[in-house]
Every structure is written in structure tokens, then in C-alpha cells.
Amino acid sequence: MYYLLGGVTLSRLKFKNKYIKIIFMSLCLILPLGLRSIIYKLNSKVSEIEAIKIDEDDQIKQQYQLLLQNLFDYRNKAILEQNEEILKELYDTDKKTGLWAYEHEIKKMQYLENWSSKQGVTFNDIKTKVKIRKVKEKETDLYGIICNVATDYNYSYENEKDVKNIFRIGTEHYLNVKIKDNQYIITKEWYTDPFADSLNLENIKSDDIRSYILAQQKPDIQLTQEQQKAIDYAHRYCGVSTEEEYEFKFNREYKNFNPDGGDCANFASQIMYESGRFKKNSIWNYNNRDGTKAWVNAQGFKNYILNSGRGSLICKGSYEETYKESYNLRPGDFVAYEKGGRITHVSTVTGMDSKGYPLVTCHNTDRLLVPWDLGWSNKTIRFHLIRVHY
Asked: Structural domains in the chain?
């Protein structure tokens, strides 16, 4: 029997309800798939936009990398040739910040000339490698740039001109460049200058020192396996490694203490520990991204190494009082630098140049195989030369 309901039989209504249910269920299945498709397309579009932005950022970085590379090469040429006029062309000296940056480079140029005269060397070449970290247009034709710079200094001794020695220094630069007369010039530049504690070399009797240095010969040294491990570690994680994979990088297993005041002692501790020769203890320790005073503080590190018997003092004093004894330094030993009665920096010896002059590797400023006194020439600085007992 069929009952009428609003002119439609109940059986037809049931059939329609069943049909509606099928449609509804189908929609429930289809709509999520549609939404997924829409969301996927939207996400793909966002990814494409982000990829385009990243690509544009990379292109801008590459553009300014070439720009700064050329600018620094030109500056290096001016420093090598002691040409102040060429140097001046690179700066907007009408602005105070540009003038200060220019005057600072003049000071550095004069220091390198003074140091090379004392050392009996000639700089053959200076090459720079730039890695752009950030570029921002501050206003029309004015750009702010943050970049890492590795600079290789090539030098030879006066009495062995065919023998080349190379050291590398890493710096982080914050600078503004602008377009003026169709060329880029520096209006502002800041970086941690590795030669800041220098510039009083005129007070040293350089003739006697030069004669002594030129008379030296590189000794034949046999390294222990632990010393070699220490050297390899230092060269890899110094921040300016010549291995491309590690260039401008520290070991991420350790915290970078530069934001907390400096990373030199932390790195010197790492070098000793990673050699496999020295174990951590309650006084000299690093754990959970933190280190004890003896691990991370330059004064604390120097005191601990001497007091623990893990090292011994070779000598201490001014440069004139220590430079002859410095030839007793060996890879794995370290130099502590004293200013105002406190040890403010430590560097590990990791090699010797063609005359046996000790070369150091360290953090802040990042150095790789740099002559141990370079950048530390003010007469108020005292040096502590420390033998480490490998």
C-alpha cells in the first residue's frame, strides 16, 4: 500500500532519499580531494614564489659578491703599492664615516709596511675571498652589506725571495656602499681589525731584529700523532679554513662564545681536547653548551695550563724580550697576549714559516698560520710563550 505525502509517494521519497544519500556521500569523498588539490596548488604557488625570491636574493648576493671582490682587490693593490691616492678613490671622504674608514686603512697600510721592515719580508700579493651574508637597499643607490672576508697574505724573506709563505685572516664586515659617478664607493665600514693592537713599531730596534730573523733556518720537527691531530683540527675549524667545506665555519658541536666576549680560549681548549691527549675534568670542562672559566676565559685558560702541569712557561715579556725565545715554540704550544696586566687573547702554534718563525691559528679575529706577533705590536703588550706537554 502506498501513502501520499504532498503529492509524492512514500516509495519515491525513499528512493530520492537514497539517491540524495549517495550524492551526499560522493560529495563527501570528492570535496576533500578537491580541497586537497586546491591547497596543493596554493602551496605550490607559494613555493614557486619563495623559490623565485630565493633565486633573486642569490642573484643579488652574487652581483654584490663580484662588486666587493673587485673593490677589495683594488684596495689590496693600493696597500701593496703603498698608494694612498688609489685607496682614497674607494671611499666617500666627504662623509665622516667614509673618511674614518679611509684613514683606518691608511693606518693598516703603514703598519704592514712597518712590520714587514722589522721582519725582513716583502709582501708579494694580497688576495681576498668574499662571502655575502646579507644585502639591503637602505635608500636609492645606497646599500648595506654584511659579508665574511678571508684575506691571504703572500710574503717572502729578503734573502730567499723565491720561497713563498702564506697566511690567512678572516674578518666580518658591515659596510655601506653607494653609486657615485657611475661607480661604487664605501661610505661606511666596520670590522674587527686584526691589526688594532699595533702601530708603535717605530719604537723597536728593527735592524737588529731583522738581522736575527733573516739568519734563522726552519728546523726539522717530528710531530706526535696527537700534535698532528691538534693541528688538523685547528686548521679545519679556525673559521677561515682552506678546505672549502669548512670555510667560514666553526665546529657546531661547540658553542661560539664570541657574542659573550670572545672565543679564543674556547677554541684553544678544543684544539687540546680534540688532539686526544688531554681529558676534561672538573676545572677544565665543556658540557651542555657551556664551559668552565679554565675552558673559555683567556686568563683562566693560561693559569690552568700552567698550574695543572699540562704546560710550562718558556718565557714572558715584551717583543724584544721574547722574539728569540719564540723559536723554541712548537706546534701545539700557545702564545698568551697580555694587555693592562690581564691575558686578553690566546693563539695556538700550528706551524712555522720558511725561517722557522712560529705561526699561530685562533678565533677572534680568525687566523690561520699567521706570524705570532702580527697585529700585536704595541709596546705595552707582553707575551707569554707556553709549552704544552703533548
From this structure: 61-194 (3.10.450.50), 216-388 (3.90.1720)
